[in-house]
Amino acid sequence: MDTASFLSVALALVALVPVSLLLLNRLRYGKLPPGPRPRPVVGNLFDVKPVRCRCYQEWASKYGPIMTVWLGTSPTVVVSTSELAMEVLKTHDQQLADRSRSRTSEHFSHGGQDLIWADYGPHYIKVRKLCNLELFTPRRLEALRPIREDEVTAMVESVYNVVTAPGNKGKPFVVKDHLAMVGFNNITRLAFGKRFMNAAGELDEQGREFKGIVTDSIKIGASLSIAQFIPWLRWMDPVDQKIFIAHEERRDRLTVKIMEEHAKALKQRGAQQHFIDALFTLREKYDLSDINVICLLWDMITAGTDTTVISVEWTMAELVRNPRVQEKLQEELDRVVGRDRVLLETDFQNLPYLQAVAKESLRLHPPTPLMLPHKASASVKIAGYDIPKGANVIVNVWAVARDPKVWDNPLEFRPERFLKENIDIKGADFRVLPFGAGRRVCPGAQLGINLVTSMIGHMVHHYKWTLPEGVRPEDVNMMESPGLVTFMATPLQLIATPRLDKEELYRRVPSEI
Ligand code: HEM
């Protein structure tokens, strides 16, 4: 064979590779939904933009509301409309309720021995029952209300200390710093029955270790190596393994220490309402190992801390971009609560506009815009396409809530839409799914809503919020940060001006529980 013929045969063979890959995929996976063309081995990994909900929305406008994205060597099916969300989370709920675990979540959950990362099976059903029947009951949420009210008043006080410090009048500050404190203290107290922060806002030794572990978890999770997506490349990354194990041991060590302290206290003063008490008391009934208890407690920290903080930061951004809404909310708060006392959760029922503001914010800015990844435990057909067993399945709830086919002027922040119609946001209405829906719906939804509503209500009742001098509403960066949860890419900085006369209303109301 001469060189020219050899070259043409070689080129023809190379050209055949994508076609053969396509045929192989077809044989292996059936008729997958369309999507961006994957490259060999890495798939679309290098095409996906960091803020995935936006990237998937953009791709959906090109490839359709159900599409396949290849993150490495396995297919991920992404759906972006309310009807398809219903197919995933209702019609085929049971077959699509496994979790796809990244290397990080595989380690942190000890292979799915928790709730968040457990596959849908006997263990999951057991711990989910425990959550629904024991941990997140209306009675327990009510019993833990003093913690939320304490922490929300502590937030008001920490803002007050900043804005009334000498030389600070009219100066902007980072809002998230004050919100994060509530997120952390509320969830650690609720789960572990312990406040790791003193009255001056300083963390004790365990608290510092706790924060360190949380920060490291985020760092380790974010430093995704390519081996995360391509399992057979994992041998290239032995360092990861050591980091994971060291991190796991550090987390488990601290948790066991807190659990031991708690066990002692439990003997002395009997069980209280915190999750750790419930888990101690119920561990035999539900046959829970130490690892199960540790993982469940950490699930609550992971799922319940940032989500609430993120929601309130986005709401504050919308309120300064829409002063009309802020004023209307202040008018409602003054009328119902008055200016002589602080807001209580029992006031919520008389504050429809406050509730609508919280809902509208969770619609436009769901903190987990792609929910958590689901995985198919069996092959199913959706919209004429095959979703093969083992495929990851994602609902882009961010895109669903911005779909002009189901929402009027979807990009407008208009809480009134929730007054006009009684729209559920806890999984019953597939147009707005900040907490997901179906069997894996967020068990902490009501707790999250209560805390978010209370934080917004307090912030707006106590302070008038404005943008820093020279910043126009359209200058606020409304871009999300990359990641499973989406903070604002640029932390929001605002000016707060106290609007209630009595100074004592700005002081923390501590609760002993
Ligand atoms: C505004 C606040 C919150 C939002 C927006 C939110 C949202 C979500 C979403 C979207 C999921 C995934 C649903 C799915 O995969 O289908 C989820 C799961 C979960 N959330 Fe929340 N959440 C919030 C607050 C909380 C709180 C306060 C807790 C607990 C203290 C919590 C605990 C959990 C747990 C344990 C899961 C896993 C459920 C499972 O896999 O079965 N969440 N959450």
UniProtKB/TrEMBL annotation:
Alphabetical keyword list: Heme, Iron, Membrane, Metal-binding, Monooxygenase, Oxidoreductase, Transmembrane, Transmembrane helix
Binding site for heme: C442
Domain of life: Eukaryota
Keyword Ribosomal protein: no
Gene3D superfamilies: Cytochrome P450
Protein name: Uncharacterized protein
PROSITE patterns: CYTOCHROME_P450
Listed InterPro entries: Cyt_P450, Cyt_P450_CS, Cyt_P450_E_grp-I, Cyt_P450_sf
Any single GO CC term annotated in Swiss-Prot or TrEMBL for this entry: membrane
Species per Swiss-Prot/TrEMBL record: Paspalum notatum var. saurae
A Pfam family reported for this protein in Swiss-Prot or TrEMBL: p450
Topological type in the membrane: Single-pass membrane protein
Main localisation: membrane
GO MF annotations in UniProt: heme binding; iron ion binding; monooxygenase activity; oxidoreductase activity, acting on paired donors, with incorporation or reduction of molecular oxygen
Essential cofactor(s): heme
Family to which this protein belongs: Belongs to the cytochrome P450 family.
Transmembrane feature ranges: 6-24
Subcellular location(s) per record: Membrane
